[in-house]
Amino acid sequence: MSIFEDVILNARSAMDAVGKKAGQVIDISKLKLATVDLKSELAQKFQILGNVVYEEKITGKDFTKNKNELIEKITELKAQLDSINDIIANNSQKVKCPVCGTYNAKNSVFCNKCGEKIETEEASHMSTDDMIDFTEDNFDDDDLI
Q: Other C-beta atoms within 10 Å of 80: how many?
């Protein structure tokens, strides 16, 4: 194989890697746009729910059916939003705090918002026997630089 063929092969490999990365960025951008739309729709449903509750209180009419339908829709939209946020976080190397739901860097040990300890999959699968004890007793003189 000639040097020219090697260069072309390496260039193709690099272009494929860049193309995949660009595709991931575009996918994340589309997901972020979807979250904006969902948040807007959620705000609208909350506003309608507030208006229904207000009208019910002022008029004395029973709008329970309307409220329940709105609450169902809001719950559905929130679940969709959470799902999309989880996908974005996973692709962005982030981990969700189990207590407050804030997204933190994947290597975070504690939540940046509430301070709760964040268990990662790697840490939860490790036993204390798997962890290295960095005491002087565990090193030989040959190990020292």
A: 15
Beta strands in 21-125 (DSSP E): 94-96, 103-105
Query: How many other CB atoms are found less than 10 A from the CB of residue 130?
Result: 7
Q: Three-state SS for 110?
A: strand
Please state the domain count of the chain: 1
Tens digit of pLDDT for each residue in 99-129? 998 888 888 899 999 999 988 665 444 444 4
Q: Which residue has the tokens 């709008």?
A: 63
Domain that holds residue 141: 95-145
The continuous run of DSSP H or E covering 60 comes out as none
Evaluate whether 24 touches 91 at the Cβ level (below 8 Å). yes
What does the block give as tokens for 67?
A: 């409220």
Which amino acid, 60?
G
Residue 23 lies in a domain: no
Backbone conformation region of residue 101, classed left if phi is above 0, alpha if psi is from -120 to 50, else beta:
left
Structure tokens at 110: 């504690």
In a domain, 74, yes or no: no
Q: What is the pTM of this model?
A: 0.57
Within 13 Å, how many C-alpha atoms sit on residue 145's CB side? 0
